[in-house]
Amino acid sequence: MDLSATLAGVHFANCVMNAAGALCVTRDELEALGRSRSGAIVTKSMTPAFRDGNPSPRYHSFPGGSINSMGLPNLGSPTYAVLIPGLRQFGKPVMASIAGLEPADFLDVAHVITEVRPDLIEVNLSCPNIPGKPQIGYDVEASRSLLQRLNGVITVPMGVKLPPYFDPAHHEAMADMLREIGVAFVSVINSVGNGLVVDPERECTVIKPKGGFGGLGGSMIKPVALANVRAFWKLFDGRVPIIGTGGIVSGMDVFEHGLCGASAVQIGTVLVDEGVGVFERLERELGEVLARKGYRSFAECRGRLREL
Ligand code: HRO
Question: Tell me: the pLDDT tens digits for 113-131?
């Protein structure tokens, strides 16, 4: 079964890769992704300098999914610029995720990382966990201004990682702006920001930062993720490749993202829960689903969701 994907001219032997943030901060983690069946090596969102992130506990997994408030812990872009050339030995695309607390941070990181030419750059407009810093992706004009400036610096295919939107007017406004900018791909969705998980026995929050508020991931967010994949697929008429992220636990979930319009997918919570062996399981399960349904490739099912 052909589970490959081509996105912005970049070939992925396997359409399933890690989501930025999941097991991709350190050199060891990035190399483990390189050795795994992940279709790409996606880095943790990086800032101009090393960050410890928020105080622990800051990640909690439970039967319905996960909540996190990591706070952008990362090694800093100069260190990733040293690591990225070495990651090429694994023969798969390297995607650098870039972030910042201010627009100037994104530009600084973009300058440093463009130099080492990752295959793609994903601009993270949607970190929900920095106290006092709203998600840029919820402000169309701030996003436009930042992406215009990054367009002048980044010389590899540039995509955006967006937060979930819950209203068609918001999908439309964002899609109009992204069309004008000419992004190479759209990655949807980041975690559902500022959820609250409670431990009723201990009568407390399950994570420490921001009074227990954090980004939700895992199976409970799948319908929100699918809606965002589908909305952008329709608004772009299938012309801008979409990476679907959110709620993938099984090969069938990957298939659902494909039906809604995803060219490739990323996994977060399930990767943290199971480790890099999960890629093999998802590959096997997706291959079985596609074969049973008479498809010859993952690409063939893309966007084919029937509306009743
Ligand atoms: O580091 C984080 O707290 C984090 C980031 Cl940057 C992000 O984009 N999404 C998320 O759920 N956590």
Answer: 999 999 999 999 999 999 8
Q: Is the CB of 71 under 6 A from ligand 1?
A: yes
Instruction: Report the distance separating Cα 66 and Cα 14, nearest Å.
Output: 25
With a 6 Å cutoff on the Cβ, whether 218 touches ligand 1 is no
Is 291 in contact with 1 (CB distance < 8 Å)? Answer: yes
* Residue located via tokens 């004009």: 141
Determine phi and psi for 86, rounding to 5 degrees. Answer: -70, -25
**What confidence tens digit (pLDDT) does each residue in 276-291 have?**
999 999 999 999 999 9
Question: Is residue 16 very low, low, confident or very high in pLDDT (cuts 50, 70, 90)?
Answer: very high
pLDDT the model gives residue 25: 98
C-alpha 146/C-alpha 291 separation (Å) is 43
Query: Domain 5-53+71-191+219-301: what homologous superfamily?
Result: Aldolase class I (3.20.20.70)
Q: Which atom of ligand 1 is nearest to the CA of 53?
A: 1
Question: Would you call 24 a catalytic residue per the annotation?
Answer: no
Average pLDDT, stretch 80-100?
A: 98
Q: Which amino acid is at 289?
A: V
Can you give the pLDDT at residue 221?
Answer: 98
Predicted local confidence at residue 55, as pLDDT? 97
β-bridge mates for residue 98, sequence order: 46, 123
Beta carbon of 126 within 6 Å of any ligand 1 atom: yes
Return the number of other C-beta atoms located less than 10 Å from residue 237's C-beta.
Answer: 8
What CA–CA distance (Å, rounded) separates 122 from 21? 12
Angle at 4 between CA 291 and CA 82, to 5 degrees: 150
